[in-house]
Amino acid sequence: MKLTLFIGLSVLVLGSIAYGAFKSVKFSPQKNEITVTKTFVNPIENDDSLGDRIVSYGMEFLGTPYVAAGCSKDGFDCSGFVYFVYNHFKIQVPRSSSQFENFGKEIPISDVKKGDILLFLSPTRNVIGHLGIVTNPKGMESDFIHSTSGREMKVVITSLKKPGYTRRFVKAIRVL
């Protein structure tokens, strides 16, 4: 009974360490006790692979049609796509592209990582009107996935070095 309880507790604690809930666990065979140092660490902040998972999930929707005000697998607008992808990971972001102007932490384009968000001016007005998720971070040559109302009218991957996007680029933000 004690061995079964010990093994079960060990699995629980070790799993929690992997998830970030405990800093350390020590077992003292002389005292037959476990000492646990609890330090909860938000796994979103420490998970380097989260950006990869966000990008991979977003890629599942390549080719999904652009739909004005769309926010479902049936079709997306640009902010609906970002909202849908991030929401899948329980990360709250604004639903409207204009609301991203003061959201997240602005970062230099040279420091972008997968999962960061790029903000662009509207093609017709001097306001934030488009956004996408970084898929391949390379500074001003980064690739990003987004739902475009342009010629393609679907979820695509585009390079920031494309002149129409370079000219309208405003900033990169990190919300992870």
From TrEMBL:
Keywords tagged on the record = Hydrolase, Protease, Thiol protease
NlpC/P60 domain segment(s):
48-176
Q: Which domain of life is it from?
A: Bacteria
**Key word Secreted present:** no
Alphabetical GO biological process terms: proteolysis
A GO MF label: cysteine-type peptidase activity
Which InterPro entries does the record match to this protein?
NLP_P60_dom (IPR000064), Papain-like_cys_pep_sf (IPR038765), Peptidase_C40 (IPR051202)
Query: What Pfam families does its record include?
Result: NLPC_P60
Q: Supply the name of the protein.
A: Cell wall-associated NlpC family hydrolase
Q: Which organism is it from?
A: Flavobacterium limicola
